[in-house]
Amino acid sequence: MNVLDFEKTMRKLKSMRNPIAVEGMARYGINPNNNYGLSMPTLRSMAKEIGRDHAAALQLWSSGIHDARILASLVDIPEAVTMEQMDDWVKDFDSWDVCDQVCNNLFSLTQFTKQKAFEWSRESREFIKRAGFTLMAQLAIHDKIMENAEFVKFLEIIRDESNDPRNYVRKAVNWALRQIGKRNLELNKAAIQTAEAISEIDAKNAKWIASDAIRELTSGKIIKRLRRREKRLR
User: Fold this and answer.
1) Would you say the pTM of this structure is higher than 0.90?
2) Are residues 84 and 118 located together in one domain of the fold?
């Protein structure tokens, strides 16, 4: 993307600014600063027009605009992303939706996903820590070849970090725990055991993480689905 195309894209984003949508997003905890309020369908449509473009993604991210940064995650090329870029971008996360969109659309598709899941989940900064657990959840959903043993290592971190009281962290911890437990019967059992261990922690948020995960992972619907899946794979 050359300078003129970049400026044109930024003008287009600004022209569709929706202050009412920004107010609505703020009620759901989405940072209203530098936010034009564009919907995901709109941003996905713009991404299709731009196409995959690593240089364009870097330009869009550098703008500091909330919507442009989500757009950057949609147009970037996973194979072109470096660890340095991931570390630079994650430091800029200032809203849970930017964190989740960048992790889901881009970071989960790179060759560094597992490494960053381990590394960031031990971080102290809220949205970097959330990014680590979001990547764990994405790996549990999409990585078809990752071994159970690797997810068990994630469960150890989930247990250790489940006493973090911050809302956006605890929700991501819970998400990762539930997704790992829905991967197969062996990990379902391991995730339930992890949740039971978490329930013994004397912290309100830890008990919420545990009870919510146990409720879903022990449900007949989930167990039935995992049994059917395992039967198909035999």
Assistant:
1) yes
2) no
